[in-house]
Specification:
Helix content is about 0%, strand content about 60%. With about 160 residues, it is an all-beta fold. The radius of gyration is 16 Å and the shape is globular.
Amino acid sequence: MKSKVCSINLSISREDNSHIYFKCDGGRFDSAYTFKMNVDCLYKLTFACKPHIVIEQVTIADKVLPLDEDTKDLNRSVYKCVWKSDTILPTKSKGRSPLKIVMDIRDIGSVETLLQCKFYKKQSTHNRWGTQVNSIQLDCARKEESGPMTVIKQSIL
């Protein structure tokens, strides 16, 4: 039986602090929704964790990112980092690209999630069509007491 161990609220914004968007895809792809982003752009990520956990490292698209601890108390922790999508190619028409995010958490291990994305050329405005994403909630749990942590639920807020 899986029991929730922690919740990670992931916020992704562009360099100008504007939100990313998503669209519903139904059953055409692996996920029912697709996050819309641009290539060669700077994105700010915030990981708000409850209860307090220590994220030691974040890797996005095989890039290890410098991580800053923003808030720390007994009930929660907040970490921030910046990622540039400069190694990502635009997604082909009618295609989707998985974006792998791995969080190395002290005393827990690695937790990873895949975001189904469509990457547009840098100047494209198609990335702003759809519904604004305030954050993505990742509920994490272990299948077994000492087993690996997995994302059991991903919700768009």
